[in-house]
Predict the structure.
Amino acid sequence: MILLPNYTIKNGIISVMNITVIGGGTGTSVVLEGLKKHKDLNLSVIVGMMDDGGSNAVIRDEFGLLPLSDVRKSIIAMSENNDNEVLRRLFMYRFSNGEGIKGHTLGNLLMVAMADTLGSEIDSIEMFKSMFGVRGNIIPVTLDKVKLVAQYSDGSSIVGEHLIDEPLVDKNITNIALDSPAKATEAAVEAILKADYIILGPGDLYTTTIPNILVHGIPEAIKNSHGKVIYIANLMTKIGQTRGKGQTECLWILEKYLGKKVDFVLVNNGQIPESAYKRYLEDGEDVIKDDLNDNSKRRIIRRDLVAGGVVKRDKGDVLVRSLVRHDSEKLANELMNIFDSNRSRVFSMLRSFLSKYKD
């Protein structure tokens, strides 16, 4: 058996590839749910710590802890333990009644209790990873308590991810930043530097995808990593962020903060469920227009990536959620096509290299 920094080659098969997903929210969960089924991948997810809406506001303000919702979603998405569905459902259960508890998920409360018991949010994450049989890594992007600050073309500004995410009127963001410096965790930097592929998105551009890139050490690690960057484009526009923008402008905005061009762009060309599409139009939203240039240095991949049906809101959930989402299996299939094409090239190069040293 021959060991390489990022691959294990046994019997002529490259069996391990390091994949790092950067994001948060439901979009990242969909990616993880699809990729976890492929046991030859070593998965890491770097989740944002800027969420200050819903139950996360209470966790930040009353308990002094970092937001846990994206961590909780990642734990469930990467869970390999399917023996106890009741435990999974309890972890995701959201209270719909009760003064002071309405809107909270039981999983968030359990993680708060575990962090208090063990004395560390990191230890709490590791404990729940063990309980749910998570095979990969779940890594907070930073342990610093910071908030998002958006500046708009009319000269105004808004502080707080939740307020930026759900504005009362549509305005154009000209800059997004953190209210104070934040340093990336060592584990996050290490996961990026070791990655063969780095996946960004899908997720709200200014409140999910870009915030992680604002953390000091993250864009630098991406630039220094040998890993290829894959951007999964969003399906629909969103008020205050991408309304009226096409895929090209969204990509340019992301790359401005990233400081480099991405290598692959995955874009949906499937049909949005009609009932959901009508509701988006009524709210002033539409499909993000695919105006990407195929002659750019990036590889543009257009596939049917959308899930069928309309997403139902959880009982007790007071936040605005997407009605349509990517399909985890469709996404995983296209991502694996990208990974496998690279594996073939690597193995061919290795075989050519080893042939020079035959006895």
About this structure: The mean pLDDT is 86. The two ends are 18 Å apart (CA to CA).
